[in-house]
Write a structure and sequence with these properties.
Elements (H helix, E strand, L loop, with lengths): L1 H15 L2 H28 L8 H21 L1 H4 L1 H6 L2 H6 L5 H8 L6 H17 L6 H32 L11 H6 L9 H9 L8 H7 L6 H4 L9 H13 L7
Helix pairs in contact: 2-3, 2-8, 3-8, 3-9, 9-12, 9-14
Amino acid sequence: MRLYMKYFKIHLASQMAYKVSFALTALGQFLNSLTAFFGVWFMFQRFHQVDGFSFQEVLLSFAVVLLAFSLAECFGRGFDVFPQMIANGEFDRILVRPRSPIFQVLAAKMEFTRIGRVLQACLIFVYAIPASQVEWTGLKILTLFLMVLCGAILFFFLFLIYAGITFFTLEGLEVMNIFTDGAREFGRYPFSIYGKRVLRFLTFIIPMAWFQYYPFLYLIGHENKPLFAVAPLLCLLFGIPAYGFWRLGLHHYKSTGS
């Protein structure tokens, strides 16, 4: 952890060296995701409910996905640029160092300009939490925290799979963006609005519904089962196949010879 904090300070100092550029990039991130918010807002100007959910309730699920994805992208950015590490031979140097390859890739890149999206998610929470009329209890506060934390970890696992694919293809597959950037867009609404087949897929294959949809039902009072309150923890099980796939790719890795 001490070494990771040193990387953290180095990346922060390097990005803050050009403060105007940092601020403008963060503003761009804020404005870019703001279009998604307006999409939801305009939808509810025409329809007062979507699949039985109110505007304020939908904002809760929207903010959870936006914040979880932004945190994962901020601290897991190294896996997003992993194909470049493979191509330029940098990963070869990583393998000869006495540290875990995952740790080194993770610490290689941090994107603090994602603070723009984080700020937007927090502002949405400031409005949605009191406006959603949720009867907040200690357990519900814990559930909301787990939704964000486990959601960020799940996105990190998806980044890990993306990096694992690169061992075989040498280039990242854009199809993975369906489950990362795409999930951020689809997550503007509770996943149930996309139909039962999509909900099943996001429950049993890519378990995004466990941190977004099922605990969300518990928050707004549609479900009272305690299992729904701790449902985000089930996302952590996805780390087993994600890490296994990474290890499989690492086992078959051949040096680029750069």
